[in-house]
Amino acid sequence: MRAGRILSLIVxxxxxxxxxxxxxxxxxxxxxxxxxxxxxSADWRQWDSFFTFVVKRFGQDLPENLKDPLGGAFLxxxxxxxxxxxxxxxxxxxxQLFLNGWKRLSPIMNQALPVxxxxxxxxxxxxxxxxxxxxxxxxxxxQSGLVSLTPDVLKGMAxxxxxxxxxxxxxxTTSVDSSLRTLLGFGxxxxxxxxxxxxxxxxxxxxxxxxxxxxxxxxxxxxxxxKPNQWVVPEGNELQSYLMKVRGLLEELSDRLAGKSKLGAxxxxxxxxxxxxxxxxxxxxxxxxxxxxxxxxxxxxxxxLGLMQVNRNTWRGVYDIKELGGDIQYNGNAGGEILLYYxxxxxIRKSEDKQPGGNLARATYSAYNxxxxxxxxxxxxxxxxxxxxxxxAFWEKFQAVSAGKEMEVKSCYQK
Length: 415
Hints:
Helices cover 55% and strands 3% of the residues. By secondary structure, it is an all-alpha fold. It has two domains: 2-165, no CATH class; 219-414, Lysozyme, CATH 1.10.530. Strand 1 (288-291) and strand 2 form a beta hairpin.
């Protein structure tokens, strides 16, 4: 116990000294002491909010050439979080999330320091010092409770880089965050339903994303012309018409997104093929499934939703969770944006097609499935067997799509 108290005191003094130094240098009022280096750890939502807060704040000061690496580090941490909080995963994930997240973020912060204004650089230097000392305790120290990442500790850390900020850095919200979208390069606002052809599919709305859904027969009775059974959950001889409608949707959104991003003409065909294939791989071109008389969104146990299986935890703040589950057009657009992001900012920019065994489509999907750090996963010699199976399944479908056989997706419905 004595050793634990000493370690807690050391880290407390380091954090406190960082605040005193910052106050002395810039003649700002001294911040309150950071309380409670021992106690109950912040939960994963508080951690996610804190990490997002730090990344967004840092992104405002970051040189342009480091914004893509920052976005990659952020998304890798989000993918890790999604895996860490999956059903069946026990224990407190926050200590390891902190250690891994800081390992990704620390080099980018240190690289930025020399080019930041002196006052701004000093704030981040203090933050780096405090985070380094916490990380130095390692998983044993953080997970044993000798030093805990309590909500107060995280708030105190946030105050080092945002001493006058009034917003709660641990506030968890699922609202779309324009500043986060801008930082990642998606633009301030996502394309809403209604900017696409709303006549392509009838609108289906949920009472609650995780609650009861509209009764299919009741909906049909209210709007018989819409024939939701035909376009939401195809059956029998409706399948071909349904798949052609989805193909048109995917073709339209891929052309529009490619044009909006000014994707080079040489890459437009492969991008469309990637979109077709990813939608096939993720959902067999489905947004909804039918359970009894109810229509529900296609959803995985880890929170992947709809046509493109966009994860609600990984992409929190980037897309509207309700729309991801309730609207095939919105979901398709979201997945298309993400695929374009990985194709242009990672696969093409990092010349994946010039690597031994490299392929732009496979790299894009590996990142889509596993995060930016998984970009070259498909060509790794000692690949995880389960992930290798996923990547090979994508490649098999992509070869069919690039041969003009994307309608073979119907095989999903014939099993």
